[in-house]
Amino acid sequence: MLQKTNFAALGELESEHAPSHSVFGFWLYLMTDCVLFASLFAVFAVMSHQFAGGPTGKDLFDIPGVALETALLLLSSITYGFAMLGAHRRKSGVVLGWLAITFVLGLAFLWFEVQEFSHLIAEGAGPGRSAFFSSFFTLVGTHGLHVTVGLIWMVVLAVQIVLKPEMSEREITRLTCLSLFWHFLDIVWICVFSFVYLGSVL
Questions:
Q1: How many other CB atoms sit within 10 Å of the CB of residue 47?
Q2: What CATH code is assigned to 20-44+74-201?
Q3: DSSP string, 170-185
């Protein structure tokens, strides 16, 4: 009887510390997202000189403003890293604090992006103006949509932590998946900043 109890306890311990397939599955999802963004970058590369006699990126892009956007997103990646450090130490208060800062930085990034889109449309350079701006709005807008999803996901995780401050491995796994997603968006944005913005004005 004691032997069976020991085996049962061992089984529970192993199941608790068994490697999660969630992170591996999420890596697979990120690979599909890589294909999506690679396709959008390829389309932009083909359309990058199709201005239809209209304005170019060099005429309208505000590089200092975009550089500020980039700094905000990169800083949010650092603050999310601090949240993960708190998660591994099982300090829910620390996690919530850094998630809040990360959320504000991500929201500020989106605000600047919306302002940029509004400015371009007001200048007559909307998605229908030329193939260049059509591919630009599609690429940058898709990234912005991903950031929006990440912010919503962040709020959901924060609510779960508030309701259940005793963080388990499941909560840490969820935070890890969002961490992968958030850092992935940083990498994509660095490519956008370098290839789309700087490449268009140089």
A1: 18
A2: 1.20.120.80
A3: HHHHHHHHHHHHHHHH
Give CA–CA dist 26/24, Å, rounded: 5
Q: What is the DSSP string of 55-114?
A: --HHHH--HHHHHHHHHHHHHHHHHHHHHHHHHHTT-HHHHHHHHHHHHHHHHHHHHHHH
Give the position of tokens 């397939």: 21
Residue matched to tokens 């929006």: 148
Chunked into runs of 10 residues, the chain (202 residues) has average pLDDT values of 41 43 83 95 94 88 94 97 94 96 98 95 92 95 97 96 88 93 96 94 83
CA quadruple 178, 182, 184, 186: dihedral, nearest 10: -170
- Domain spans in the chain, listed from the N-terminal domain onward: 20-44+74-201
